[in-house]
Amino acid sequence: MSSLSALNNAALQILQQQRPQSAAAEDSLVASVNGVSSPAGSGAGSPLIQAQAKISGSMFSVNSLNVTAMKVRLMERVGKEFAIDQGDYQSLFSYGTAVKNAVEALKQRSASEIIAIEKKLGLDQLGVSLDTLVNAIIDPNGSDSDRLDAALKKQAGDDVKDASKTIGPDEIGLYGR
């Protein structure tokens, strides 16, 4: 029994000697969790941590503007104008074709309604037509899609980020900038 208690005492002494170093680490960790600068200057208040937080916030923020998200919302809204739900179609091409057919049918009935829909969707402010939007849905890699992207970037200004270019796999398959 005495050898066991001696071993426990030795372990206790070793742990107590290391406690001051771990206490500093704990203080730093607590400070960073609370968002307060640690005494050593390496906690959440340090410039490095603040810069990392800003980078993460700008890359992954749900509030940042993004051309792809704006384009997807616009594509959904045009479908709603014609009572066409994208979920009813298996591909973007078939959805775009259905929207195109609805647009063509409306053109034959009333050209003024096409203009009204373009204004309601804000296409007139973007400087693109309803046909350009529909063609961008059908062919996401075509020239109309590029024209729509450019118009959305111009409208959003410098705050916009193209999600496909911001985050993606590099040459070895890792995701990042």
Describe the structure.
By secondary structure, the chain is mainly alpha-helical. The protein has a domain at 65-166. It contains nine helices and four strands; from the N terminus they run H-H-E-H-H-H-H-H-H-E-H-E-E. The chain has helices at 2-34, 47-60, 67-81, 92-109, 111-121, 123-126, 130-138, 143-156, 163-166, and strands at 65-66, 160-161, 168-169, 175-176. The strands form two sheets. Strands 1-2 form a two-stranded parallel sheet. Strands 3-4 form a two-stranded antiparallel ribbon. A hairpin with a 5-residue loop joins strand 3 and strand 4 (175-176). It is elongated.
Features:
177 residues; mainly alpha; two-stranded parallel ribbon; two-stranded antiparallel sheet; 4 strands; elongated
Short description:
This protein has 177 residues and is mostly helical. 69% of the residues lie in helices and 5% in strands. It has a domain at 65-166.
Secondary structure tally, helices: 9
Termini distance? Answer: 61 Å
Helix content: 55-70%
- Supply the helix-strand structural class: mainly alpha
DSSP summary, beta strand count: 4
Q: Compute the CA-based radius of gyration.
A: 29 Å
Could you say which overall geometry the principal axes of the C-alpha atoms support? elongated
Average pLDDT = 74
Order of helices and strands: HHEHHHHHHEHEE
Low-confidence stretches: 158-164
Strand content is: under 5%
